[in-house]
Amino acid sequence: MFVSFRKNMKKNVLIWTGKVSLVSVAMVYVVLLVLEQAECVNEQTTEDSLVWQLQTDRWKRMTTSVERQTTVNETQRPHFYEKGTPKIVIAQLGQTVYLHCIVKNLGDRTVSWIRRRDFHVLTVGKTTYTAEGRFEAVHLTHTDDWILKITLVELADCGDYECQVNTHPLMSYFVNLTVLVPQADILGERDLLVSSGSYINLTCIIRQSPSPPMFVFWYHNDRMINYDSSRGEITLQKASEDTAMSILYIKNAKALDSGNYTCGPSNADATSVIVHVVNGEKPAAMQHDADTTSATVRFDSSFSLFFSIGGTLFTVFWPS
To answer: To which H or E segment does residue 99 belong?
Structure first.
């Protein structure tokens, strides 16, 4: 019985050993398959990475090339140079004005000036296409500045002007022109009362006048008194950026000094006041109001200040 048990035990051990061996072999096989698959995946991943890297490098090279080409095209194609070029130009009636248009890399293209008010083509290149002789195309050789010159500028010339380059699409640069019309006015009332023996002090203000008038003629009635040898003086000077001022000063006023006084600037319409020189106190009906009196005092002080330290442009002295 014991012998039979030993035989059965040996047989079972052999069978179990065989099963264990088969399981071990199977596990080793599975491990090898997993390792082989992992190696294949790694190889595929490496290959995909290399392909991606190559594609990325190629894309970068293409993008860089396009960017460089774009940069080259941007610098080589025509473009307006706006730095320091005024888009708003203010001129005085009757002056000569220049509208500037600077075009870089123009090449074989053409610059035209167009008046936007009526879309009239004024100039093409260096040629003027208008019967108005006041307009002219100006271009200096070896420069990028294409200028529209307008002489004896008129109020009707106000508005936008288009500098156009015949690219596709068209390139446009706009300049706005404002024309100022100087206006003259004598400060104070239209009728002034002056006591005999005192002084006449008239201040003529010329507004909207960036350039001061070349001269201001003063008239007593119909007679010009700028060059009279009398008892006063006339000054002309710039009071502010767009304002000029002329002052007529007459001392020791007499009855003969009564009458119409006219300020006639070279660049504006004339303006007049009536001066009454009377003996004694001022009649109540012709008293100056407070504003007129204060204005006279202020500009009398201003005259003394400007005359003593200001730059006088035009002065005529009348000795006593």
So the answer is: strand 97-104
Q: DSSP 3-state assignment of 42?
A: helix
Write down the H helix ranges in 137-202. none
Distances (CA, A) of 283 to 2, 142, 278, 294: 167, 73, 9, 19
Taking only the tens place, the pLDDT of each residue in 128-183 is: 999 889 999 999 988 999 999 999 999 999 999 999 999 999 999 999 999 999 99
Single-letter code of the amino acid located at 280: G
The reply to whether the predicted model has a pTM over 0.70 is: no
Name the H helices within the chain. 2-76, 290-309
What is the distance between the alpha carbons of residues 230 and 318, in angstroms, rounded to a whole number? Answer: 5
Give the amino acid at 311.
G
pLDDT digits (tens, 9 = 90+) for 94-132: 999 999 999 999 999 999 999 999 999 999 999 999 988
Q: Which residue has tokens 């006219």?
A: 262
